[in-house]
Specification:
- By secondary structure, this protein is mainly α.
- It has one domain.
- It contains four helices and no strands.
- Helix 1 packs parallel to helix 4.
- The chain is globular, with a radius of gyration of 15 Å.
- The termini are far apart.
Length: 118
């Protein structure tokens, strides 16, 4: 499910980020504080929103692979069909929001233009 979400996220939002929902995020305080004022979602989508807003603003983002160990003693609460539809809807809403705020051809790092260091 997470691989599908991340693929869909890259397609809908036009980023090259691989895992916005990673459990570990480290920020420079001076970069994070302005981002926090823009965050709308206070739930699960917060991760995607903070990472994509930083990406769109051209923040330097380093994704470092980590080892994920699945816990078999816990059962997932994700409902594949229902949650996929909700996630897709939220991605589309967020896309409209950032296109409105930053313009349809918003900034961020691209293959031709590296991110600024922040």
């Amino acid at each position: 499910m997470s691989r599908g979400y991340h693929w869909l996220e890259r397609k809908v939002l036009g980023t090259r980020l691989h895992d916005t929902a990673t459990g570990y995020k480290f920020f420079r305080r001076e970069s994070l504080l302005p981002l926090l004022d823009e965050i709308v979602d206070q739930g699960w989508f917060w991760d995607t929103e903070v990472m994509v807003r930083g990406y769109v603003k051209g923040y330097q983002i380093a994704e470092i692979p980590t080892l994920f160990l699945r816990r078999f003693d816990k059962q997932s609460t994700v409902d594949g069909l229902r949650d996929s539809l909700v996630y897709f809807q939220r991605l589309l809403q967020f896309k409209r929001m950032i296109d409105k705020q930053y313009g349809a051809n918003h900034g961020g790092a691209t293959r031709d233009r590296p991110a600024e260091s922040r």
